[in-house]
Amino acid sequence: MTSFDKLRKPIILSLLFFLPVAFLLFLYPSVHNYTPLEVVNQDVVELDRFRSIDGEEVILQDRLTVLAIYSYSPLDQSTAALNLKELIYDKFKGFKKFQVVVVAPNAAEDELRQLKEELYSYSDLKYWQFALGDIQSINQLGNSLLTSATHESSAFNQAYIIDKQLNQRGRFDDRSKNELKKNITPYGLYSYDCTEVADLKNKMSEDLRILFTEYRQKRKGTFESDDRRNDNLKSDGEEN
């Protein structure tokens, strides 16, 4: 047996041990240098004027919420609701304080219940609330949100990310790499079109993951980006 043969096994074992460690050390610096999900809007209206169709309390404070406002005919939003369930709810339902809340006008109660039953046929919706409110409350809530909807027909397919402090989260600059290279005028992402799978799968899912990382770091005392996000919000307000 050659000297190399004698060393082969220790070398292989060493590589198997140190490669994963080196990989983790390589990733570690990036954990604290990600770009936080920006506060694009503040003071989202609380849901104390809404009632759950299940008789449960519906609130945004201290929850991380994906919020949607549906029309007088919630069944028209069936595709949006199913996409939201499969691509967002099913992925994040195990996270602490996470919830999906869908609100609709009081007059839409029958259809909202039908929509709930339709979604229930796929799985339990323990962390999904369905709530009703009068038109004034619906309008007040809608007016407290920024939307990326480009026309009225798509407004009811939008979903919004609301953090535990009633801030709306999103992106001030949603340009792709190609758009950045072409120097396209910056545009924001304030809500996510639930009829667009790519919007949910590639954008909202990633943004929620970033927000959960932020809250995890805050619990550990390692998050230090609040001032920068507030400065971004202030600057945006001054420009408008």
What are the main properties of this structure?
47% helix, 240 residues, globular, Glutaredoxin, disordered C terminus, alpha+beta, eight-stranded mixed beta sheet
What does this structure look like?
This protein has 240 residues and is of the alpha+beta class. The protein has a single domain (38-239), classed as 3-Layer(aba) Sandwich (Glutaredoxin), CATH 3.40.30. It has eight helices and eight strands. Strands 1, 2, 3, 4, 5, 6, 7 and 8 form an eight-stranded mixed beta sheet that branches. Helix 2 runs parallel beside helix 7 (197-220). The radius of gyration is 22 Å and the shape is globular.
Q: Please, how many helices?
A: 8
Quickly count the domains. Answer: 1
The helical percent reads 40-55%
The whole-angstrom Rg is 22 Å
Detail the poorly predicted runs: 25-33, 226-240
**Global morphology:** globular
**CATH topology (fold) name:** Glutaredoxin
- Beta-strand fraction estimate: 15-25%
- Helix and strand succession? HEEEHEHEHHEEHEHH
| Largest β-sheet summary | 8 strands, mixed
CATH secondary-structure class = Alpha Beta
- Mean residue pLDDT: 85
State the CATH superfamily name.
Answer: Glutaredoxin
> Based on the structure given, which CATH architecture is correct?
3-Layer(aba) Sandwich
SSE topology:
Blueprint: H1 3-31, E1 38-41, E2 51-52, E3 64-69, H2 78-92, E4 98-105, H3 109-120, E5 128-133, H4 135-143, H5 152-155, E6 158-162, E7 168-170, H6 177-181, E8 192-193, H7 197-220, H8 226-239
Parallel strand pairs: 3-4, 4-5
Antiparallel strand pairs: 1-7, 2-5, 3-6, 6-7, 6-8
Helix pairs in contact: 2-7
